[in-house]
TrEMBL record:
Cellular component annotations (GO), alphabetically ordered: cytoplasm
Name of the protein in its database record: GH3 auxin-responsive promoter
Highest taxon, organism lineage: Bacteria
Annotated ranges, domain GH3 C-terminal: 390-494
One example GO MF annotation: acid-amino acid ligase activity
Pfam families reported for this sequence: GH3, GH3_C, GH3_M
Phylogenetic lineage: Bacteria, Pseudomonadati, Bacteroidota, Flavobacteriia, Flavobacteriales
Record-annotated membrane-spanning stretches: none
Species, as recorded: Aquimarina muelleri
Domain GH3 middle: 297-362
Length: 509
């Protein structure tokens, strides 16, 4: 009998019963007021006169009117470079103990994002909220006695100039509470291994010693880890070695592209729960099984704003036009894509996180990630978002009974005419020409702007099939494997040229 599991499950269920509904709009007002008061005497707070913002009748409106939008490069150039150099009270009181290294998608130069103790605590609280939400998923008591495989970046943080640096998953894992250490796998020793391939090899070697009930990590890297364990032990599927695996907590990217390939590694379906943990904070988590949408965490150190995702508001590099209108949580609409802005307890202010989202339920503050501001293909008016690309590829999977978990594309010129050139990670005998024709027809039927573009400047679609593992190898050449690294879906002309050269070299080997 799962005595400990019953106790944990009972405590979680009781917490769920006792918890009251959050008034998300009011909580957001409180969060903004708290952030402004805390940072009142910082250099940033004085520059943008937080004192007068706090005295305004409508603080949210005054805040939006007084502080410009910042992407990472703008905030780094004007403010965070001073924080990195050790200056105190720049955008947040004192100096942070951590910096999260992130390039978002693959990129050789890491960003350094401040992570304060307040943010570590906010992430911890968000994690507890997510655990409490498990009471909604009807999991058996035995599940709460199983171990959790958290596959993130290395927890071997680097010390530099009086602070520690690493990816946010490594920072979070290095700050797990002592009572959780017995459940956490692969454990401290393996998690500190820097080289991703070596770390996964050690996981495969130790896999038989663990009773894994849940997985957590970015889908592409989780899949590669599971494949390695299956291969190492010559298994039919991962349930042969971890029979009690029941839950997978995805994060940071849409799970739908990976669903078919992920399920092929299992003996039976498991519960998939989406979360939204970025380098800048823990933003949202899936609270209930009736939907794959995630609930914004509105009462925990992050203030959200939203800019309608329209081409005229977006610069070529994915940043925002300063005159683009922003709205609050009280003004959002269902079904509209928004550029997400955050202000946080780590000293980010009206920060363009780079993701686009849509609301599925305003009262519950539930959202889905729809793409990236940089991954928006509109060179000849096609207005293709990542969500539209993903939806089209799910139809391709169904039509041809294939798996396409990875892809990238770019607008290219051939004989002075524009084409969309897709690289699809798939193993199939279907020809490139058949895939291109089907993809083109699906996009024309589903997307008016694309259909208009195809009748004018967009000449056609090219498809090149490549082995799926080329995408992880590319990530390795650009930055490193594992952790928070995500594949860029839309590439610039220059990056696409590098990608094509990389692919050609590997395929010719």
């Amino acid at each position: 009998m799962a005595i400990i599991g019953n106790l944990i499950k009972g405590a979680i269920d009781l917490k769920g019963v006792l918890s009251s509904e959050t008034n998300h709009i009011e909580e957001q007002k409180k969060v903004l007021e708290g952030l402004l008061k805390k940072a009142l005497d910082t250099h940033f707070g004085k520059k943008y006169n937080f004192n007068s913002v706090l005295e305004a009748e409508d603080i949210q409106n005054a805040y939006a009117n007084n502080i410009p939008y910042f992407d990472y490069h703008q905030l780094h150039e004007k403010w965070w470079s001073r924080v990195i150099n050790g200056e105190k009270n720049v955008t947040w009181p004192e100096t942070p103990d951590y910096f999260a290294l992130s390039s978002g998608t693959t990129g050789k130069k890491s960003k350094r994002i401040p992570v304060t103790n307040e943010m570590i605590e906010a992430i911890r609280k968000a994690g507890i909220k997510q655990v409490e939400a498990l009471s909604n998923f009807d999991l058996p008591a035995e599940f709460f006695e199983k171990e959790i495989m958290m596959l993130g970046s290395s927890t071997n943080l680097r010390e530099k100039d009086g602070h520690l640096e690493g990816e946010i998953s490594g920072i979070s894992a290095s700050n797990i509470p002592f009572w959780f250490e017995g459940y956490y796998k692969p454990g401290k020793e393996i998690s500190e291994i820097e080289d991703w391939d070596k770390r996964v090899q050690r996981i495969a070697e130790k896999a038989k010693e663990w009773d894994i009930g849940a997985l957590s990590g970015i889908p592409s890297w989780i899949e590669l880890m599971l494949q390695k364990v299956i291969e190492h032990h010559n298994l039919n599927n991962i349930h042969d070695i971890w029979p009690n695996l029941q839950v997978y907590t995805s994060g940071g990217v849409a799970f739908a592209p990976y669903e078919k390939s992920f399920n092929s590694l299992l003996d039976h379906p498991i519960t998939v729960i989406d979360t939204y943990l970025a380098s800048e904070g823990f933003i949202a988590y899936q609270e209930r099984p009736e939907t794959d949408a995630m609930k914004l965490i509105t009462d925990n150190g992050i203030y959200f704003e939203f800019v309608p995702f329209k081409p005229e508001y977006i610069n070529q590099d994915g940043s925002l036009q300063q005159d683009a209108p922003s709205i609050t949580l009280a003004e959002v609409e269902v079904g509209q894509d928004y550029v997400l802005l955050i202000s946080t307890v780590s000293g980010t202010w009206r920060y363009i996180i780079g993701d686009t989202i849509e609301f599925t339920d305003i009262e519950r503050a539930e959202i889905r990630i729809t793409g990236r501001t940089k991954f928006f293909l509109n060179v000849v008016g096609s207005q293709l978002s990542v969500q539209k690309m993903n939806t089209a590829l799910r139809e391709i999977e169904a039509k041809f009974n294939i798996k396409v978990p990875e892809f990238t594309l770019s607008a290219v010129q051939i004989n002075e005419e524009f084409y969309h050139h897709w690289y699809l990670g798939t193993e199939t005998d279907i020809t490139n020409e058949e895939l291109a024709k089907a993809l083109d027809e699906i996009l024309k039927e589903a997307n008016k702007n694309y259909r208009v573009a195809r009748s004018k400047a967009l000449k056609g679609v090219k498809v090149t099939k490549v082995p799926i593992d080329l995408f992880s190898e590319w990530s390795g050449t650009q930055k490193k494997k594992g952790g928070q690294v995500k594949m860029e879906r839309v590439m610039s002309e220059e990056k696409f040229s590098e990608w094509k050269t990389f692919v050609s070299k590997l395929i010719l080997k």
